[in-house]
Structures are given as structure tokens and as C-alpha cells.
Amino acid sequence: EVITGIFSNISSIHRFHGQFLLPELKTRITEEWDTNPRLGDILQKLAPFLKMYGEYVKNFDRAVGLVSTWTQRSPLFKDVIHSIQKQEVCGNLTLQHHMLEPVQRVPRYELLLKDYLKRLPEDAPDRKDAERSLELISTAANHSNAAIRKVEKMHKLLEVYEQLGGEEDIVNPANELIKEGQIQKLSAKNGTAQDRHLFLFNSMILYCVPKLRLMGQKFSVREKMDISGLQVQDIVKPNTAHTFIITGRKRSLELQTRTEEEKKEWIQIIQATIEKHKQNSETFKAFGGAFSQDEDPSLSPDVPITSTSPLESVVTTEGGSGAAGLEPRKLSSKTRRDKEKQSCKSCGETFNSITKRRHHCKLCGVVICGKCSKFKAENSRQS
């Protein structure tokens, strides 16, 4: 089930290319081109089948999420993936890189066909079929347009992931790279400037040290700072220009840019990211009641609960007769405690129902996220 969720209908796509599209194009180009120099008729006939890419594209976000989840959850899965990626046939690319290729395939066909038509004479016998093929392929490509934008974001994440040597698991549909760039950190001891590199994401900042390598890992993560609770402040020093401070839960960093404009840009974009993260967190909290019922088996979907949120106070019951006069039942002490646990006990990140789900320890009752959980514990009562 997990494998099907990751690779979707890729087997059908592979069979289509291997048994139909590739053989016909190969025969036409290698055996028939001298007497029949055309491609449009083949593409027009087979272009409707390219719509099967739509299913793969729609499943792409879920597929990447499954890879990320099971890489964290299963050491065996992680080892298998890493061993396969080391094979020469993989070209030193990650599984996620290869998963991107089918999403980009149809738009590439569209670009190639447009280029083909530019070079094709107006009176060429193949023009009419080629133009009709372009219409069909463009229709199929439209199914991928939204995914392509996500793919471009995912490409950036994969590039950063490789630059970091896999130190941080950032390849996740929920992550977005906002800005990156070289910066200098001012030493707290003597004020000397040290070369550093910042990666700003929608949920965190990675403060990195450059590695002097021509190939492979370029940066090592020195500090990970969550956007939640982060503060950024402009400072003015008489002997040090273009400086500002970012303050997280664990530490503060005094940073310096090359120009005043660059400093203002960093401050503005970090502040905007903080504000957007706050808005998103408030939205998740507003819908927290509905989401937590899906996540927490202790909450029954048909039990009305009291809440200060307008969205959570709406109670629906089957039948509806006499419901208006009923007083909603109050939360039990256990349920109230569970709802108060909105962040991971280990890493402190806020829970949500999509990318940061809650996990309850059956022994001690602590609530942590999947990344911090090993999903098992030794039970001392079993002998």
C-alpha cells in the first residue's frame, strides 16, 4: 500500500512509453524517415493517453510526504532508499529527484513540440498534425501546471538538502524556501566577522557554516531556529554597520550584511515570514477542534464540546429535533489536558493534522511528534 501510494500509476506510464510511444517514434525516425518525415501523426494519435500523467501529478504531494514519513519512521526503509540511491544508475540523485521527472515530462513534450513547429515550414505535410498534437499535449500539460510550481519549490528544497549533506530532512511539501544567502556573524567575544550562510524557510531558519569543498556537501547546519517565537531586530552600532539580531528560543545571533539595502531586505522578509506563520498557526488553532477529533481517539465525533472558538461551538446532531435546547457537554479533564498539548514535548514545534501529527506515549502519556518518536518503547512489565 505504501509503495503504491509513493509510485501511483507509474507502471502504466512506463508501459505506455515502452510499448507504444517509444517503438513508434523509433521506427519512424530510424526506418521510415526518408519516405515519411513526420512526427505529428504519431503524437496526435497517442497524445490523449498522456492524460494518465494527471493521476501521478495529483498524487505527487502525498507521495513525497510518504517518503519523508517512512524515512523517519522505519530505519530499514531509510537504509534501502539510501543503498539504492548510491547505485551508479541513480546518477547520485535522490529518490525525490527521480519522482519529479514524470511530473515534468508532459510540459517538456509541449516545449519540444513548440520548437519543432518553429522549425517546420508552413507548407510542410506534418504541420497540421503537429499543431493538433500541440493542442492535445497542451491540454494534458494544463493538468500539471499547478504541480509544476510545487515541483520548482521541491527542486529548491532538494538542492538545499544536497548542499546540507542530508543533515536536515527539509524535503517536505509543507516546506518552502523563502530566501537564502551569504551573511556574516559577529563574534560575541571579540566582534570579528565570520562567514556564514542563512536558509530562510516558511517554518525555520537554518544557520550554516560553509564547507571548503568543490563537490558534495557545501554547508553544515550550526543552528536550527523555529519561526515560531522568533524575533528580528535592527540595531545601530557606531563602529559596525549593517547589523541586525535574530532571537530564537535558545539563542540570539548578531548578523551583518554587506549593504544597508541587503540588511533591510533580510529584516523585512524574516518579519513577513514570522507574521505569515502566526496567521497560519491561528488558522490551525481555529480548526483545531475538528482536526483533533481525527487525530485523538479519545474524542468521539458525535460528542459536542464547549469551546471559545466560533467554529468549534457549532454542534451538529443527527435528527436535529430538540437540539437547540440542549446544553453541550463539557470536556472531560483528560480531554481538556490533551487539547492543551498543542506542541511537541521534545522539540516544541506546534502540532497540525497534516505534517506534524501528535503521538501519545502509552506508558507516560507524553505527547510528541512523529519525528521525535521512535514509535516503540520497551515495556518493563513484560518479562
Automatic annotation (TrEMBL):
Primary location: cytoplasm
Domain DH positions: 1-147
Segments of this protein annotated with the region Disordered: 293-338
A single MF term (Gene Ontology): guanyl-nucleotide exchange factor activity
A GO cellular component entry from the record: cytoskeleton
SUPFAM superfamilies (UniProt xref): DBL homology domain (DH-domain) (SSF48065), FYVE/PHD zinc finger (SSF57903), PH domain-like (SSF50729)
Domain FYVE-type: 338-373
Keyword field: Cytoplasm, Cytoskeleton, Guanine-nucleotide releasing factor, Metal-binding, Zinc, Zinc-finger
Domain PH positions: 176-275
Localization of this protein: Cytoplasm, Cytoskeleton
Residue ranges, compositional bias (Basic and acidic residues): 327-338
Polar residues composition bias: residue spans: 305-318
Protein's UniProt keywords contain Ribonucleoprotein: no
Xref: PANTHER family: FACIOGENITAL DYSPLASIA PROTEIN (PTHR12673), FYVE, RHOGEF AND PH DOMAIN-CONTAINING PROTEIN 3 (PTHR12673:SF14)
Descriptive protein name: FYVE, RhoGEF and PH domain-containing protein 3
Species this chain originates from: Macaca mulatta (Rhesus macaque)
